[in-house]
Amino acid sequence: MLEAARKLFAGPVAFLKSAPALQFLPDADVPEVAFAGRSNVGKSSLLNALTGRNALARTSNTPGRTQELNFFDVGEPRQLRLVDMPGYGFAKAPPAVVKKWRFLVNDYLRGRQELKRTLVLIDARHGIKDVDRDILGMLDKAAVSYRLVLTKADKIKPTELETVVAQTAEEARKRPAAHPDILATSSEAGWGVAELRAAVAESIT
């Protein structure tokens, strides 16, 4: 699966469109894998590492920069679509705008038939927070399959990382829609990126 996934992401990867509301979603004609996470968890950086592109997804030090659902097509012919979701938990925006984002994300996750898996990114330095549990609970309730992915794993000591992985896995086992295996990644160091590609490819087969 590692080699097949490498070949998949070695092919064309292109930005398709941004959707600020449900009526702007692209046709549901290809399997989709969504990326969710707290603002500034490193979502855009990991998407760039995953696809081997430097600037596929915009990165920013300002939390809450991604305000829409961003869609990227992978493969030629197209084989899957990656979805970069707005960060949750913090945003430098008026409450009404944040509320709009939340409704957009909720409605997309609950109603998108082509959504095969959601990857929920957790900052390895902080572990699962209550704001993460909110979206995990929503995914469980909606019966949307998801997998927990630790980001910035190179920023903590190996012993600390082992503890965070164990704690995250323990929480995942308690949740009905969660994949039991935890992926630890670093977009800077390249840790776990090949395994993440394989996880994405596996979820659409």
TrEMBL record:
<keyword id="KW-0132">Cell division</keyword>
<keyword id="KW-0479">Metal-binding</keyword>
<protein>
    <recommendedName>
        <fullName>Probable GTP-binding protein EngB</fullName>
    </recommendedName>
</protein>
<keyword id="KW-0131">Cell cycle</keyword>
<keyword id="KW-0547">Nucleotide-binding</keyword>
<feature type="domain" description="EngB-type G">
    <location>
        <begin position="29"/>
        <end position="205"/>
    </location>
</feature>
<dbReference type="GO" id="GO:0046872">
    <property type="term" value="F:metal ion binding"/>
</dbReference>
<comment type="similarity">
    <text>Belongs to the TRAFAC class TrmE-Era-EngA-EngB-Septin-like GTPase superfamily. EngB GTPase family.</text>
</comment>
<comment type="function">
    <text>Necessary for normal cell division and for the maintenance of normal septation.</text>
</comment>
<keyword id="KW-0717">Septation</keyword>
<dbReference type="GO" id="GO:0000917">
    <property type="term" value="P:division septum assembly"/>
</dbReference>
<dbReference type="GO" id="GO:0005829">
    <property type="term" value="C:cytosol"/>
</dbReference>
<dbReference type="InterPro" id="IPR027417">
    <property type="entry name" value="P-loop_NTPase"/>
</dbReference>
<dbReference type="InterPro" id="IPR030393">
    <property type="entry name" value="G_ENGB_dom"/>
</dbReference>
<dbReference type="InterPro" id="IPR019987">
    <property type="entry name" value="GTP-bd_ribosome_bio_YsxC"/>
</dbReference>
<dbReference type="Pfam" id="PF01926">
    <property type="entry name" value="MMR_HSR1"/>
</dbReference>
<dbReference type="InterPro" id="IPR006073">
    <property type="entry name" value="GTP-bd"/>
</dbReference>
<dbReference type="GO" id="GO:0005525">
    <property type="term" value="F:GTP binding"/>
</dbReference>
<keyword id="KW-0342">GTP-binding</keyword>
<keyword id="KW-0460">Magnesium</keyword>
